[in-house]
């Protein structure tokens, strides 16, 4: 070993530092802006904990906005990493939990859980996980055995399963005739307006171990991208690793869906942008997705709650408005 | 960074706790409309009404000087439009509510999300929930809110007036010989009616009509075919849309002369706000309904 640091380590450090900066900036912006206007100096003082004279601003920033921006960061990170893992495993740049119907499946599970009166955690989360595993299996079965058009077959199967999931969701929603109905609809579109710290705690307890696990497997994901034969010849436990990654990612996606509904396209936009800039090394991409996805989601959530004159819109609307056109562009380019 | 955040957070928490303690000095314990024990100030002066119905009742009690915020769509009385809005009652803006620094929020159980009440209470803002289900519980709710805002006398006189007007309606309806079949349609498209267990179902009964959708519960969706099969004698349509005229609605139904109500021209458009909102104005709705369902009872004494 020479005194010079490993090139990957160096890149990792630089990229992480830059994206951490972006995430911090997004978090500070998320804490500073909202439906209540306050002077810049008052906000800065409150952020630095130096304004005991303004308990109201304190409460708004630390009790209402703080849990919310943390949740947004966690959700964005989970969705981005989810997309990255699916893209590597399925060797398909268009794979993403939302597009493949995995999110839809967990939403079905979660809605059934809500209708049955389960608590958010663990009841609804477990139901969401069961739903996501079912759709995952379904997508794999539909798309298997059509090796020639592998990429398109997977996407088509995903689209079909997703459409089916939407129909089931609408079916369930129209069958429930009570006041929870509106809540379910807002929640479906990705609502984070009522977040509290307990919710953030539960979600980070699930997601952070997941992030670590996936980071540990990032080298294996590089191998997987080189092809099956290559990976096997390098002594990789192909089946174990694929299964671990699939289950871990689905579980992370289910946990986020059960906490704040369907937030689509984040898992597509962020991994693609970062891959374009940083190259295909997953050892760098995994942490970059965690930090960058977090920053992106905090920003989208900020738009969602400041754009409307009255009230707010679900964050899922913003992510889809940005993400869906980008998806079309990527699809066009990949078909060339 | 994160350690610092936790420190600030703890500081903020402690501060909120002290705020809570100081504010609770002049507080009393009450049971709210859904049986929860809560602490409310003796004389609340910064009240947020989390539903249009609550806004109306606070105004009716003459206590509007206590209001600092109201739910969106609170459009009655006109003066309410001047107050700051805190989001709709289904999707309230918690940040705006907290920014108004209220000492009491009044919520409705059916509609306001439960999690909102929990979040507000964790921030030291008491939330008094009411649960109006019928005219009887509307009167209870008026008395409860009157009590809360130290306007008990005004509340009791509102309730007395409501009761006597309802009695007059009952007397008049007793003279009716026939209970016409009523189809009550909420909005124009899709066709949504009212089943049992709703305010409007109760109003139709009291006004001497027979709700043709009484076999359904809550708010059933029907096809035009089903409405024709029910052959209503009276067709009543509420509408939230501005500028929907009786002509327009009549034209919608005119293609079905088989329906007795269409044949006899007994179609009425009524203001959805007084029918949907659990407020004392439901008595206005009741009186209006009797005129629509039993016009013959008003021939001699209008």
Number of domains of chain A: 1
How many beta-strand runs of chain B?
10
The N- to C-terminal Cα distance of chain A equals: 44 Å
> Over all CA atoms, what is the radius of gyration of chain B?
23 Å
Structural class of chain B: alpha/beta
Spans of chain B of 5+ residues with little confidence (pLDDT < 50)?
20-25
Nearest-angstrom radius of gyration of chain A? 20 Å
Q: What is the CATH C level class of chain A, in words?
A: Mainly Alpha
Q: Give the count of helical stretches of chain B.
A: 12
- Largest inter-chain interface? A-B, 31 and 36 residues
Q: Which fold name corresponds to the CATH topology of the largest domain in chain B?
A: Rossmann fold
Which word captures the global form of chain B?
A: elongated
CATH class of the largest domain in chain B reads Alpha Beta
Name given to the CATH architecture of the largest domain in chain B: 3-Layer(aba) Sandwich
Number of domains of chain B: 2
Number of helices of chain A: 14
Widest sheet of chain B: strand order?
Answer: 4-3-5-6
CATH-scheme architecture of chain A: Orthogonal Bundle
CATH superfamily of chain A: ABC transporter involved in vitamin B12 uptake, BtuC
Which topology of chain A does CATH recognise? ABC transporter involved in vitamin B12 uptake, BtuC
């Amino acid at each position: 070993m020479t005194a010079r640091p490993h090139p990957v380590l160096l890149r990792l450090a630089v990229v992480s530092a830059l994206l951490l900066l972006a995430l911090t900036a997004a978090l500070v912006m998320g804490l500073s802006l909202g439906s209540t206007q306050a002077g810049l100096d008052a906000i800065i003082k409150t952020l630095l904990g130096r304004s005991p004279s303004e308990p109201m601003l304190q409460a708004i920033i630390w009790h209402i906005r703080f849990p919310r921006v943390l949740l947004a960061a966690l959700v964005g990170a989970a969705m981005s990493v989810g997309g990255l893992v699916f893209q590597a495993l399925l060797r398909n740049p268009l794979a993403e939990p939302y597009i493949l119907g995995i999110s839809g499946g967990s939403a079905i599970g979660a809605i059934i859980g809500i209708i049955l009166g389960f608590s958010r955690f663990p009841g609804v989360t477990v139901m969401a996980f069961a739903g996501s595993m079912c759709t995952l299996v379904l997508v794999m079965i539909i798309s298997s055995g059509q090796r020639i058009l592998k990429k398109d077959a997977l996407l088509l199967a995903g689209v079909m399963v997703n459409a089916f999931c939407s129909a089931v969701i609408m079916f369930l929603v129209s069958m429930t005739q009570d006041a929870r109905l509106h809540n379910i609809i807002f929640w479906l579109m990705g609502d984070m307006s009522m977040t509290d710290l307990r919710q953030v705690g539960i979600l980070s307890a699930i997601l952070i171990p997941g992030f670590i696990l996936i980071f540990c497997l990032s080298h294996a994901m590089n191998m997987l991208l080189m092809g099956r034969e290559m990976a096997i010849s390098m002594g990789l436990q192909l089946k174990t690793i694929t299964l671990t990654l699939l289950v871990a990612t689905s579980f992370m996606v289910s946990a986020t869906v059960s906490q704040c509904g369907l937030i689509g396209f984040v898992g597509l936009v962020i991994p693609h942008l970062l891959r374009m800039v940083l190259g295909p090394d997953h050892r760098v991409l995994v942490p970059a997705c965690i930090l960058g996805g977090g920053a992106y989601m905090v920003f989208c959530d900020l738009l969602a709650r400041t754009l409307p004159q009255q009230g707010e819109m679900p964050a899922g609307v913003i992510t889809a408005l940005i993400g869906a056109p980008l998806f079309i562009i990527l699809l066009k380019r990949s078909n060339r | 960074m994160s350690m610092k955040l936790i420190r600030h957070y703890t500081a903020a928490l402690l501060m909120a706790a002290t705020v809570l303690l100081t504010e609770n000095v002049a507080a009393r314990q009450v049971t709210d409309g859904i049986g929860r024990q809560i602490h409310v100030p003796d004389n609340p002066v910064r009240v947020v009404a989390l539903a249009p119905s609550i806004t109306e009742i606070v105004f009716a009690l003459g206590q509007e000087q206590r209001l600092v915020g109201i739910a969106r769509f609170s459009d009655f009385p006109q003066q309410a439009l001047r107050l700051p809005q805190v989001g709709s009652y289904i999707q309230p803006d918690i940040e705006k509510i907290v920014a108004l620094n209220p000492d009491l929020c009044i919520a409705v159980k059916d509609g306001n999300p439960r999690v909102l009440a929990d979040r507000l209470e964790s921030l030291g803002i008491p939330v008094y929930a009411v649960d109006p289900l019928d005219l009887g519980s509307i009167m209870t709710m008026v008395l409860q809110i009157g009590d809360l805002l130290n306007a008990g006398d005004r509340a009791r006189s509102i309730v007395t007036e409501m009761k006597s007007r309802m009695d007059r309606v009952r007397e008049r309806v007793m003279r009716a010989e026939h209970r016409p079949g009523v189809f009550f349609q909420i909005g124009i498209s899709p066709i949504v009616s009212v089943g049992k267990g709703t305010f409007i179902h109760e109003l139709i009964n009291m006004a001497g009509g027979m709700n043709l959708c009484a076999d359904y519960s809550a708010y059933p969706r029907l096809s035009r075919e089903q409405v024709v099969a029910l052959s209503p004698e009276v067709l009543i349509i509420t509408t939230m849309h501005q500028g929907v005229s009786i002509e327009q609605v009549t034209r919608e139904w005119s293609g079905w002369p088989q329906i007795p109500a269409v044949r006899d021209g007994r179609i009425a458009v009524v203001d959805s706000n007084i029918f949907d909102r659990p407020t004392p104005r439901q008595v206005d709705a009741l009186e209006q309904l009797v005129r629509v369902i039993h016009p013959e009872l008003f021939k001699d004494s209008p």
